[in-house]
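During the second half of the funding period, the structural biology subgroup turned its attention to how the target accommodates small molecules. The most pressing case was iron/sulfur cluster, which had performed well in the primary screen but for which no bound structure existed. We therefore specified the complex as follows and requested a full 3D prediction, including the ligand pose.
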Amino acid sequence: QRRPVGRVMAQVAMVMNLDKCIGCHTCSVTCKQAWTNRTGVEYVWFNNVETRPGQGYPRRYEDQETWQGGWRRTRGGRLRLRSGGRLRKLATIFANPRLPSLQDYYEPWTYDYENLMTAPLGDDMPVAEPRSLITGRPTSITWSANWDDDLGGGPDLTASDPVVQRLGDRIKLDFERTFMFYLPRICEHCLNPSCVASCPSGAMYKRAEDGIVLVDQDRCRGWRMCVTGCPYKKVYFNHKTGKAEKCTLCYPRVEVGMPTVCSETCVGRLRYLGVVLYDVDRVGAAAAVPDPRDLYESQLDVLLDPADPEVRRAAARDGIPPHWIEAAVRSPVHQLISRFRVALPLHPEYRTMPMVWYIPPLSPVVDALGETGHDGEDVGNLFGAIDTLRIPVEYLAELFTAGDPEPVTAALRRLAAMRSHMRAVNLGEPP
Ligand code: SF4
Ligand code: SF4
């Protein structure tokens, strides 16, 4: 028996195809130029592209219990709340201790080029010392986004990844099985956003018309509960203005029918932006299912089929404009998530109902490479050898399905079947 459709809302959502990301950071740089090229947010990347395995940005955000304190412990010592006096500052520190420090993001630096140009003649070669862009003082750089790339892979590197640590003996790490891929991340514009729930000032809000989560700069008092409250660590503190800032999903562009800057400039063309319809009455129960492994399915269950006449009637009843309903029908995002089930949510166990979904990378089958020359794109190979994919299914499952390998395996098999089919079509072979 069909369940009745509750209140329908529209949400702008994104799907990223991880097989296509080359880690070029064009998305990060163009986003930064558009949104965070200002004093106070030098360290901020609304869009970052993580090396996986790796510690992420801010480092170890998937294991936030390790953080010992907030900004007060940074060595630079100049990051002070501008809004509020000593009392609020102390209250923020004591009531809200689990904040990443500046070193957990990274300390932006430049080089002291002046020294190169003006150093007096001497026996030693002058050097361009790294200098912090925030304090202006020389800095010893100990961390930055994608530091994991420079460490060159291998077991030592992957051992510091919180996901690898959670997997323990269930994942084999040695040089023969080294793997890596890139994971671009923006704010998830969650259906159940904990940043909104945690804001004592009522400054964080989720827009009713398109689900974009924003910060009201006039109402923000700089408590930074949202920074702690967001498990994806996608709210940032502007140390110049004393206010929280975050990804806006480029709402001024979306409002006039343009894609987000990151989608438009992505070199791999891997970001699909679209509209999904969801039943807002189902969100609470779906986010609270007892077993985290059921969260992927429960999150799917919240989304509605925009081609279903009953859903369309309910959407019209609830004031969704007709062109949005049509956009949802045509949306590649809806098709990839709900119809073909090849896109998965990032860390559904955080229970915020994230709305940026990922098509997992389809890596080669390691064992088959040596013997047959076949790789993971051969569908026959994949059906027999899913356990020997270069990127372990267990690792992807920890990222996307709270540890349940079945949906990941199903998505990878579908991808392999599609590639195999398209290859046959393009080569004129029988499919
Ligand atoms: Fe809020 Fe974080 Fe979800 Fe973005 S990812 S909506 S900042 S809880
Ligand atoms: Fe990946 Fe596209 Fe960003 Fe380049 S621009 S890092 S391909 S998401």
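Two results from this model are relevant to the next phase. The chain has a mean pLDDT of 85. The first helix runs from residue 26 to 35.
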